[in-house]
Specification:
By secondary structure, this protein is an alpha+beta fold. Helices cover about 40% and strands about 15% of the residues. It has a four-stranded mixed sheet with strand order 1-2-3-4.
Length: about 90
């Protein structure tokens, strides 16, 4: 599992960093955590971390639809407890 550094910091000091990340291939909407291990019917697990009030941006919804069509599981976790439960359930897939 690894974290995708797609955070969107719009402060002046990070506008240049954002341009650099984009030039390196950062894609809007990609999930925060990717677990590239096939389990059950899935090729891997994509986790988007949100707090209780967080909502997906349009690019995130679009990426979710694409990745699910390709056979990946996509979930939104809103707490550490959610994260632990999702990982345990995913690892238990046959």
């Amino acid at each position: 599992m690894f974290h995708v550094p797609n955070e969107n910091d719009r402060s002046d000091s990070n506008i240049i960093q954002g341009a650099i990340r984009k030039s390196l291939g950062v894609v809007a909407g990609v999930a925060d955590l990717l677990f590239l291990a096939a389990k059950g019917d899935y090729h891997g697990l994509c986790i988007e971390m949100k707090d209780e009030r967080g909502t997906q941006k349009p690019a995130q919804k679009e990426w979710q639809a694409i990745i699910e069509r390709e056979g990946y599981k996509y979930v939104i976790c809103r707490s550490l407890a959610d994260f632990k439960k999702i990982i345990e359930e995913y690892l238990a897939e046959k």
